[in-house]
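Final paragraph of the annual report: two paired records, presented back to back.
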Amino acid sequence: MRFDDGLLEALHEGMFQTPLWDGFLHRLRTMTGAQMAMLAIRPHGQTDVAELVAGEGPAGVVRQLMVGHAMREGRGYALDDLLDMTDPHDRAQARETLLAARITSVRAVRVTEASGVDGWLACAGGRSLGSSAGALLLGLAPHLRIALRNFAALEHERFRSAVTGEGFNRLNIAWLTLDAQGRIVESTQNMEQMFQWGTLLRRGRYDRLVPASPAIDRQLTGYVKQVAAGQAVRPLAVNLSQDPWFDMLVAPLQGETISGHRSAAVIIYVSGDRRSQADRCEQLVDLFGLLPSEARLAWLLAQATSISEAAETLGITVETARNYSKKIYAKTGARGHAELVRVIMTSVLALS
């Protein structure tokens, strides 16, 4: 069957519209002369049905006639077919409601996408809504199935992206990509927020990423040039600040990107913490029942600092630091320095 050129285009573009499939349903209603066009969608594993309508009419009744019965795929249904499958009491009530809305004809079709998404497409109107409308819906069924499959995949990726993004946000991790000139190609929303935390990193002229430290700026520029020249380089880890903690990992970008007009050369993961060392020590006191002196040592040890370096930073003897560390290990359940780092850095502190 041949379709109006704009109808299939509207169907496949409908998943990006707000409301969903609005243009498609209005075009379908116009083509068939229907009083109302409706697309009902039931996501996989759910009982609720989303109802998308163009025009006026008792959409709830039409939806119930379709969804409430075992409509088979590949078959067109008329109003009498749907009413025949309905309980006599409900049938009379449905017919009365439809007649009150001057709807005497319904054409409907059902499709089921492979992942389990169900869709029902219907037109409802007067007697002029004939078999041609039913044939049109049957011809649209395979295309609707493809559209629903794409919609299901898009929604799945949106959900995964939202969950991943929330996890990155809670862990205070952001990312951005740079081209060969050190210009930002794309970045996560929380990266833009980190730019406003302070002056350690900023978006400069022409979207260039600018570290506050000239030495780090030169190091980053040289690294990007090496990657752009095709040299094999290892990821580069850079600490930007220790209090509050702020660091980044720069690595060659694996694979191609089509999201920007400039090709990205490297990806940078940024881990930032707006909380000061004092804030984190207070959290360690609450979380593990440490004394303030123990919490200060525990936080330094969690940065993979040696016990002698930590003792010097705190102005205590190494022997005192060792005594503190024994109490820290007992209270946190860690069995050594490496495990203490893991326990603290993967605790709820990372989510706060």
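The closing record of the year follows.
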Amino acid sequence: MLSHLTPLFAASSAASGAPGKKVLYITANPNGVEQSYSMAVGKAFIDAYHAVNPNDVVYHIDLFQTDIPLLNGEVFGAWGKLQAGASFDHLTPSEQVKVSRLGELVDGFVEADKYVFVNPVWNFSYPPVLKAYIDAFFVAGKTFRYTADGPIGLLTDKKAFQIQASGSVLSEGHFGEFEMAHRHLGAVLKFLGVPSFEAVYVEGMAAQPDKAEEIKTQAILNAREAAKRF
């Protein structure tokens, strides 16, 4: 559920019309706007988005400051007990805490209408906290289900956007085959049925340090324009 989160942007009191969308602004960067290219561009995107969507409510999840239980033997053991018919009260206190928290995370993800992911690239992929979060919402019966014809995604009415920063250019060219962050997140969202997934890249700052600010400025402009369409 999203009710436990304080909105980054609440619906404007001056806004009129139909109730707005719920947007999850998901950041996977330990640094702030001043130190991080992805966070600076992410802020530009979400500020521009809110300006043209004042009815929408934006919730921020800082994955580096969020309790995300890792999938481990204890979690799988607890789920196994529940699937075998045990009641929640028969789980250990630790199992109850982890299962409840994982349920809260996936329910909040399902409740949202739009997702904005902000991440750097670390060693060709994203920070492990984002993978942990993906594991929390990648749940059969919640975000996808099994059928006689195979699994189908249940998030068919959602939209997603990603802002990704990398020191090298990974979205195309020579190193494109090494990029695993955007490609993996795209595969996850496609599997879950999300029909729209776009991205703005902030890349090449380490390869061309003399052009780093120019790259950042252009990415901010691209993000602001993309936010108007999202």
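The chain has a mean pLDDT of 94. This concludes the annual technical report; the extension proposal builds directly on these records.
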